[in-house]
Amino acid sequence: MYICICNAIKECELRKAARLCPGDAEGVYGALGKKPNCGHCLEEADELIAEERSSVLAPDTIAA
Predict the structure, then answer these.
(1) Which of 1, 4, 5, 61 has its CA 20 to 30 A from that of 14?
(2) What is the 3-state secondary structure (H, E, C) of 7-63?
(3) What's phi and psi for 9, nearest 5 deg?
(4) pTM, two decimal places
(5) Residue ranges making up the domain that contains 47
(6) For 3-28, how does the pLDDT look when each residue is reduced to its tens digit (9 = 90+)?
(7) What CATH number did the domain enclosing 15 receive?
(8) Total domain count for the chain?
């Protein structure tokens, strides 16, 4: 599924970048070599980034 139509950023690409790059949606877009155009996707992108980062951190906190 495309998260950002303007930049053709797919959900899987955004999630992978969220694990590797700090910052909000604009920062992650920058790491992908893109920048927001119309901005309609930013809220959903920020939610997916937060979701992805929390799922990456969850196993560590459970094991501790």
Answers:
(1) 61
(2) CCEEHHHHHHHHHHCCCCHHHHHHHCCCCCCCCCCHHHHHHHHHHHHHHHHHHHHHH
(3) -95, 120
(4) 0.82
(5) 2-63
(6) 999 999 999 999 999 999 999 999 99
(7) 1.10.10
(8) 1
